[in-house]
Every structure is written in structure tokens, then in C-alpha cells.
Amino acid sequence: MIKLYNPKNGLHLAILKGIFDAEGIPIFVLNDNLGSIRTGTIIEPFFERTIMVSEEHYEKALTIIQNFTENIERTEQ
Prior knowledge:
Low-confidence stretches: none
Structural class: alpha+beta
Helix content: 40-55%
Shape: globular
CATH superfamily: UreE, C-terminal domain
CATH topology: Alpha-Beta Plaits
Strand content: 15-25%
Number of helices: 3
CATH class: Alpha Beta
Distance between the termini: 33 Å
Mean pLDDT: 88
């Protein structure tokens, strides 16, 4: 599996999961469940969620991520 993207927050992750599911692209989210156990000192790199994808789906998944981030940037302006 190849590292694809680190979503900024849980909402972005949920949206992307839905998009990938609709496109039939299987993903694995590294540290997906760690956000629910945050206690004490928060060391962000340990809690960062990472979307991983297989090599065969990488190009299509990368296009999805690029479109998603462009849309997010446009709406945040």
C-alpha cells in the first residue's frame, strides 16, 4: 500500500471514505481509531490519520484527492 493523503480532520476523512467507497477504491486508514483515545499530551504525528491505497488504484485515488483539496481550498477562500 502507498501513502496517499493525511486528512486535516475527521470530517474530511469521512467525506473521502464515502467518495472512495462510491468509486469502488479500497483504502486503509492508518491510525483511524486513535482519535477516540486522545488523553494527556497530544503528539500530533502519532495521531495523524493517513489514507493508504494499493498501487493499482493509486492514480485514480490521487486524482480524487487533488479534486477534493482544490474544492476545499476554493470554499475556504
